[in-house]
Amino acid sequence: MQTRFLKALAMAVALPTQATAQTNPLWHEQKIKNYLPHMTSPEVRDLLTRTDMVIIPVASLEQHGPQLPIGTDYLNGVERAKLVAQRTDVLVAPILLPGQSPYHMDFPGTITLSTATIQQVYFEAAQSLIRHGFRRFLLLNSHGGNQYITRLVADRINQETEGVAVELGEGVAATRSAPPSAPEGPRYFDQHGGVGETSSALYLAPSVVALERSQRARLTFPAHMTGMFPHVVAGDPVARLVFMAEGLKPRETGKGTSAAEMSTTGVWSERDPSDATAEQGRRATEAFVDGAVRFIERWKELRP
Prior knowledge:
Layout: H1 2-19, H2 41-48, E1 53-58, H3 72-87, E2 91-92, H4 115-132, E3 136-141, H5 147-160, E4 164-167, H6 168-174, H7 195-204, H8 223-233, H9 237-246, H10 259-262, H11 278-302
Parallel strand pairs: 1-2, 1-3, 3-4
């Protein structure tokens, strides 16, 4: 009797201690609905009763100038996918952090993988999800350098498995009744690490943005690209296609268009990234999320 009493007393003393135990001070995440890393297996099984759709962000780990983290593409892509999944049932399944970024390798911290490695990892991940019952894949490419790999992965899923895959950005574009109108006022070249991308990060992942470190980059191009640059800025689609095919390529190609060869800061923009605002990022994010939800809901209507 005395032994049982002592055991009960010890448990009563221990419980409050466990409840107030110190936990990891760096952990600040909250559990997010439909986000695979936060889910249990029974929760995934339950989600499968409502949807067979998966968003897979296709990202990168690469320099984004002095004001943005190396994980910008990963964070922006995953956070957009999470926002979509709060409005319509779809699994969010991040697979890789790095992507294809060899033209940023002059900047410490960039990690780049080969085309063969990237596409094989994503394809095998899709095969795993297909085995569990997922059938429809929305590849959310958040790094321009991955665009051809993303199409290859989608094609492999479509040609070699029971699954069906689309590029989510193309799905969003398909929901627009008209092409987006050009902003009023002068046009500027604003690509990698520029005002647009910095604004998105200020909205989606503000605590890792150091806007006070922003610097306006000095851009330099090979002579023939300098000649076509005004046409790119003016919105000539042919000039842009040709310009982007040659721009941002590894130093080893000899094109003279790696990030370090074309930009003093690694940012590919005429504008000063300090002009970025969270409000601009909110508008861009909400436009994408709205379009993604419309596309997903329409796909569900077409193929319940």
